[in-house]
Design goal:
Length: 247
């Protein structure tokens, strides 16, 4: 997996609140977010985060779990109560230890140390990215590279990729996710087509779903959220394939 600068990362300049007490981690994450085009505000602890959240609305919050003065979980509980907007936005826990999303207040988590592409893919998934127009352009460009001027081959590719998306949705709704190795086989089956179209966010979303299923004690809420992300991305790709098929 790698950063994929060819695909737009957001449908608008999404606003992200980064809450991190470690100076080095804060600086690196802030620079990454800015480079990817996000509007970023930073807080060094939970109290600062509360003040910033009360002053304006953010589209997503990245929250370190262990901080002085007010820890991440307590901060998120307070932020969730600020408004209906904050009750529903994605809040991602940043933690050096693999921990379950605590008490349902966090939407998801990213284990530290993380690679830039892991953060980028998680943001793309929860901020409903890439934007449909950008995704359509990206798919169209990949199809052009694969098929050249052969329109018959292009239509065949679109039909095959669309069928793969439909099969992925069927696999996810089959009720077999609790079977050992089922999702690993599903991911393996679709990996080559995802990489041919360079659909890295969907590939990462499948890996994130596998990670939850591999936990000794699967968190049902996190499982549903990550499954929903995969389904949402797949539906978006399927819709854009239909659009480029008639373009």
């Amino acid at each position: 997996m790698r950063e994929n600068p060819t695909v737009p990362v957001h449908p608008h300049k999404a606003k992200v609140l980064l809450v991190e007490d470690n100076r080095v981690s804060r600086l690196v994450a802030e620079r990454l977010l800015s480079r990817w085009g996000y509007g970023v505000s930073v807080a060094a602890d939970g109290l600062e985060a509360l003040k910033l959240a009360a002053l304006g609305e953010f589209d997503l919050i990245l929250m370190n779990l262990h901080m002085p003065r007010l820890d991440g979980a307590a901060t998120v509980r307070l932020i969730r109560r600020l408004s209906p907007h904050y009750a529903r936005i994605p809040i991602i826990s940043l933690s050096a230890a693999r921990q379950r999303v605590q008490g349902g207040v966090f939407t998801d988590y990213l284990e530290k140390p993380y690679m830039p592409e892991q953060l980028q893919n998680l943001l793309q998934q929860y901020l409903h990215s890439p934007a449909p127009s950008g995704l359509r352009l990206h798919i169209d460009e990949r199809l052009q590279k694969l098929s050249g001027q052969d329109q018959v081959f292009r239509r065949q590719l679109v039909a095959l990729f669309a069928r793969n998306c439909e099969e992925l949705l069927q696999d996810l709704s089959s009720g077999r996710l609790d079977e050992p190795q089922f999702l690993a086989k599903v991911a393996h089956k679709h990996k080559s087509s995802l990489r041919l179209l360079e659909l890295f966010p969907l590939e990462a979303a499948l890996e994130n779903l596998q990670e939850v299923l591999a936990m000794q004690e699967t968190d049902p809420q996190l499982l549903l959220r990550r499954k929903g992300v995969v389904e949402q991305l797949t539906h978006s790709i399927l819709g854009e394939l239909s659009a480029v098929a008639v373009a």
